[in-house]
Amino acid sequence: METLEVQTPYPTTTTTIITTVGHDDYDDDVSPIEQVRLTVTNTDDPTLPVWTFRMWFLGILSCSLLSFLNQFFTYRTEPLIITQITVQVAVLPIGHFLHAVLPKAQFRIPGFGSKLFSLNPGPFNMKEHVLITIFANAGSAFGNGPAYAVGIVTIIKAFYKRKISFMVGWLLIVTTQVLGYGWAGLLRKYVVEPAHMWWPSTLVQVSLFRALHEKDEARMSRAKFFLIALFCSFSWCLVPGYLFTTLTSVSWVCWIFSKSVTAQQIGSGMRGLGLGAVTLDWTAVASFLFSPLICPFFSIVNVFLGYTLIVYIAIPISYWGLDLYGAKRFPIFSSYLFTAQGQRYNISAIVNKKFEIDMAQYQEQGRLHLSMFFAFTYGFGFATIASTLTHVGLFYGRELYDRFRASYTGKEDIHTRLMRKYEDIPSWWFYVLLGVTVAASLVLCIFLNNQVQMPWWGLIFACIIAFIFTLPISIITATTNQFIGTIIAGTTNIAVAWWLLNSITNICQDDLLPADSPWTCPRDRVFFGASVIWGLVGPKRIFGSLGNYSSMNWFFLGGAVGPIIVWLFHKAFPEQSWIPLINLPVLLGATAYMPAATPVNYNSWILVGTIFNFFIFRYRKKWWQRYNYILSAALDAGVAFMAVLLYFSVGMENRRITWWGTKGEHCDLATCPTAKGIVADGCPAN
Predict the structure, then answer these.
(1) Phi and psi (nearest 5°) for 266?
(2) Which terminus in the chain has less CB density within 10 A, N or C?
(3) For the chain, what are the domain ranges?
(4) What is the mean pLDDT of residues 295-313?
(5) Does the predicted TM-score (pTM) go above 0.90?
């Protein structure tokens, strides 16, 4: 068997559209997609047991564990996301262990007739492994950590200090997660069954499944390597996670220039531009952009270019050179909202009893102001949206049209035909699911509106928008979900969130927490700010005629025109192959995770990703093929288990070690304003 070399793992920053050939060029039993032909086999063994005790036990356990860990980490300063790849690797030896110890005796279950069952129907097989991983995928919200709607519950309880019942929160999370299944069922014909719908992000997992289930004759097996790396990761996490927390952001510029505001603004990895800042904490490396070990190098390069353009060119010019929007009155890097005097905006004061804006209090405090970086986050976000539409239309418009036609009239994929041997889910099931979910959501919006603050017409409008965009987006990305795992994951998410929100004092209030506290909720802080900007205060008072940042709307025009210029250059100089590689949506959207992500996250992610996916991939390819993904999974799992152990052993009782190495990154002046006359606590007078 030939060794398969694949470096298309988990694209986190861009979607790559690859031209495919027509159906007629290939036999019906061969996929028309080259990447699929190289990765996925065209055979199936329908006799392999699938619905086994091992599958259900390990699947539910994996889903519950991942949803617990991802919700647990989402409130932390470095919110590590544990993906299904960790489970994919870790569950294999457990599956083999269960095969060795479970009884093989057969028995009958009342109500199932004469059918025989066994806890151990045979060797642990790949189909069981795949279903367990699909379960686990729901536990990481399909690569995004916890369920998105948990953020709504968090900001209501932790930021707005309002009440929402556990049952309402559970319904909110489950309905928002499950609603997409209705659309998925209706559109299976277009986004699942055709051969052209090949789901590129799954190929890495397919290749990893095959690698894990092939005979392992190397000197060090993958399982042994995984256990060694897991132990090392688990042990080292104790150092930056508890004993020496300053290692999370080694901002040496701040140490050298301990009394310079400007130097600390430049050098702080967590509250400045992070020049030279690095981390020795894996959670900081992989917390926002996922593991750099599973991201292809071309994506890393695109992120690096965009990150450099925005953080080290646009921001310094705007802040120190032009003082745009009075930027020097505020921290250079912050997701907080401010008054004109540079003080943090008191959001609670402008919310009335009906959970609406109190205009009198708003007029008293004045307009909302943003840090320079936060303002640019929205500006470049606008440009990214516009440039994506223009870029895709110009460079891939014809291809998307052909792909849509192929999905509508194309022949069935060989793998779809193989699946016809199994009983399919009837279409009416998806109609019922869609109807029940929408009905439950309407109940929330109509009868419990005081808690969820969503009018019924807003829900209908959201459903219409979702339906309109589901087909074109699915044709490009071809992403799927699964139902049972979603219910389990959503329930676990809300349970863990409820527990942490009620057990950790001042959670998410970083101004009230100790300097080394990990419970600062950076993602939810940004989500809270967005809820104020787009909901409570409204975009008209921020980006419209009543706000300070109306000029940010010009980013839409710039984003739309940029790809046109690139396209015209490509047409004028077709021999220059590098021109079409200029991907403005990727460059402009490189810092989409900032904030809550910080420069130290990006610096270390780019550095580690370059080492493994350029140097090791190029010069130690066999090692990379064999151990790269295994190492990524082990690093994630090790820090996850140690972080939970630390919380239950020392965190719950607030046992802390106090010395220089546990007092943050020592860049206290990085958040200081530099404008004359602006006073801030702990900052020198200007």
Answers:
(1) -75, -40
(2) N
(3) 53-662
(4) 87
(5) no
